[in-house]
TrEMBL record:
Family statement: Belongs to the asp23 family.
Protein name, entry field: Asp23/Gls24 family envelope stress response protein
InterPro entries: Asp23 (IPR005531)
Classification of source organism: Bacteria, Bacillati, Bacillota, Clostridia, Eubacteriales
Pfam families attached to this UniProt entry: Asp23
Organism: Vescimonas fastidiosa
Highest rank taxon of the organism: Bacteria
């Protein structure tokens, strides 16, 4: 949980807020099929349903009150993966900062699969 200090008190922002905002921002980008989750039992990458997008996002809280975000995605066939990832990085950083007021230090995108 990140705590933001204001003149009127303290605001706590939970992990669920960051993962939900991140998942929504990433899946709205062109070329993204959805969030990915690798099963521990069989090792297969699964496309997550919209209500379970947060499983594809990991948030790390840094000592300087910033967050680092790692997300796992599945992209559509035929897109330029590097361009899609750069787009996601910028969009996630902007949307998370705008909605929470917390600075995002890093956004790391892992492409786990490509849909055919």
């Amino acid at each position: 949980m990140v705590k933001v200090l204001t003149d009127q008190g303290e605001i706590g922002i939970s992990n669920a807020v960051f993962t939900t905002i991140t998942g929504a921002a990433a899946t709205n980008c062109f070329g993204v099929k959805g969030m990915a989750y690798r099963s521990m039992t069989d090792g297969i990458v699964h496309l997550l349903r919209p209500e379970a997008m947060s499983k594809g996002v990991k948030v790390t809280y840094n000592d300087d009150n910033t967050v680092s975000i790692e997300l796992h995605i599945i992209v559509e066939n035929g897109v330029n993966i590097a361009t899609v990832c750069r787009s996601i990085m910028g969009e996630v950083k902007y949307v998370v900062s705008k909605n929470t007021g917390v600075e995002v230090r890093d956004v790391n995108v892992c492409v786990d699969s490509i849909t055919m």
